[in-house]
Specification:
The strands form three sheets. This protein has a six-stranded antiparallel beta sheet with strand order 1-2-3-4-6-5. With about 350 residues, the protein is α+β, with helices and mostly antiparallel strands. Helices cover about 35% and strands about 15% of the residues.
């Protein structure tokens, strides 16, 4: 539910005006913006001046992670902003919820499934897991579906408290056992069950009963419940939901290979036998430069860097990515003659 907009401090580009607050809680808020020149809508996700320092660091980390994920099925960040009252946040394009009745979600035409797994593969490749994957984090973009909001993302295998949305959290996270990218595959299996059956995997009832079902090998009987479910596809989905991560596909690519081979596509349909590729290779800056970027976005770090390196060392690529970050804090990157 949206609420009437309250005043948002100056600091956004002049052509943008706040329309309404979409969500506000615990020092964070999400705003809908309108570009008065083009009429297009954007979303501004921010943390307020009195927010916990960890939240202020988190919004910077979230922006930098999204900025790294140059993929047709990840939402595109449009800029990071410091408002005059100390609010920090980033803009992104506004996307609509996906409709499961649309093409791409049917068992025999799972193009949207391919797109989500392609986006997850890139996220995992840069060393992170989403950890809050659910239908509300999958929206409709220009070229299909887009993943959004990696606000709870964490480095693969790191020590974290159970996080996410109840009904989509992998058992190993709830039990504080070692985990990896297969936790996201479990969550996506939950999404598929909900999309195809209209019900959450855990069903109704007491929490204790839901936990018991979650820790049991699923018996979904999808072929009895879902029209046009190819033989074997139900078993592939059940593998995604196995309580033992070692029994799930090892990664997003293998998950798609299993689902694709059972989805009823004709042989030799090469275009859909591979996951979508990134628009650009992800960039991995050195640890020191990464910390400088984070500090600059928080408004506390250096705003001038000197890049050196021999020909072929990747200096131009680094300069291009640094320019993208500099633009978000009102800076520029200039090439100085040798």
């Amino acid at each position: 539910m949206t609420t009437p907009a309250v005043r948002l401090a100056p600091g956004l580009p002049g052509s943008l005006e706040p329309v309404e607050t979409i969500h506000r809680a615990s020092g964070r808020s999400v705003w809908r913006l309108r570009d008065v020149r083009s009429g297009r809508r954007q979303v501004f996700k921010c943390v307020e001046p009195d927010a916990d320092p960890s939240q202020r660091r988190g919004i910077v980390d979230e922006f930098l992670l999204l900025e790294r994920l140059r993929h047709p099925h990840w939402v595109r960040p449009l800029g990071f902003h410091h408002l005059e009252d100390g609010t920090l946040g980033y803009r992104m394009e506004e996307l609509a919820p996906f409709d499961t009745a649309e093409e791409g979600w049917r068992p025999r035409d799972p193009e949207a499934v391919r797109q989500v797994l392609g986006a997850l593969r890139l996220l995992h490749a840069v060393g992170f897991c989403h950890l809050d994957l659910k239908p509300g984090q999958i929206l409709r973009g220009r070229d299909g579906v887009c993943l959004v909001d990696p606000g709870l993302a964490a480095p693969v295998g790191s020590t974290v408290e159970p996080r996410g949305t109840w009904g989509y959290i992998a058992p190993e996270l709830l039990d504080r056992r070692p985990w990896d990218e297969r936790a996201d595959l479990y969550a996506f299996g939950c999404v598929l069950v909900e999309v195809w059956t209209g019900t959450n995997l855990l069903g109704e009832g007491e929490v204790a009963d839901q936990i018991r079902r979650q820790r049991s090998v699923p018996d979904l009987r999808l072929r009895e419940r879902v029209e046009e479910m190819p033989e074997g596809l139900d078993r592939a989905v059940e593998r995604l939901l196995h309580p033992d991560p070692d029994r799930r596909p090892r990664d997003a690519n293998r998950a798609w290979e299993e689902l694709h081979s059972l989805a009823g596509y004709r042989d030799g349909y090469f275009e859909r036998s591979r996951l979508p590729v990134p628009l650009d290779l992800p960039f991995f800056p050195s640890a020191g430069l990464e910390e400088d970027w984070r500090a600059a976005l928080r408004g506390t770090g250096p705003r001038r860097w000197v890049l050196t390196g021999a020909a072929g060392s990747g200096r131009r690529r680094l300069r291009d990515r640094l320019a993208a970050v500099a633009e978000t804090i009102g800076g520029t990157v200039r090439r100085r003659a040798p």
